[in-house]
Amino acid sequence: MRSLLELKNLKAILIATNNPGKLKEIRELLPKKIKVYKPQDFNINEPKENGKTFKDNAKIKSLYCAKRSKIVSISDDSGLEVKYLDNQPGIYSARWAGKKKDFSIAIEKIKKKLLSKNKQSSPANFTCCISIAFPSGKSFEFLGKVFGKVCFPPRGQKGFGYDPIFISTGKTKTFAELKPSIKNKISHRYQAFKKIKKYFKFN
User: Residue 197: which pLDDT band, with cuts at 50, 70 and 90?
Assistant: First the structure.
């Protein structure tokens, strides 16, 4: 883990995502003094995510960007796992939204699949794996989860992805109804980031 100690003095980092929602949430987790770059800043296209787990795909993205940009890169691979759908869509969460990343299509797909099983809602969890990669080729991965349920109809405008149908345990509002400051303290992304926060210098 010696490489992670370098994060204490990190001046810049590339957030390896083209998803504006993820970019915003990861940026807000990082120290404000760190300069943030996007893949577009280095003309980096998205790599093919052909891993079998969240960890695999997060690592693919972070290493791909770190090697091409020559700076430390951070990525996340995350998704929704619905218990009554055998933990689908899982790592295919974004792909369920189609090429245009229209999550209303993905949400409707979950609804129809649940109804086909005579279910109106289901226990579910969001899973996130954050990967930090160095140009040297080393990477470190950290997993976070938040548990709750999916229910319909979708509610809220503040979130993105599957947020309008996910209610975390102990809450009555969906992720898309919660203030970002509240969501960001309980989300799967935050749970994963907590495990690496100690390696960054916050002041």
Answer: confident
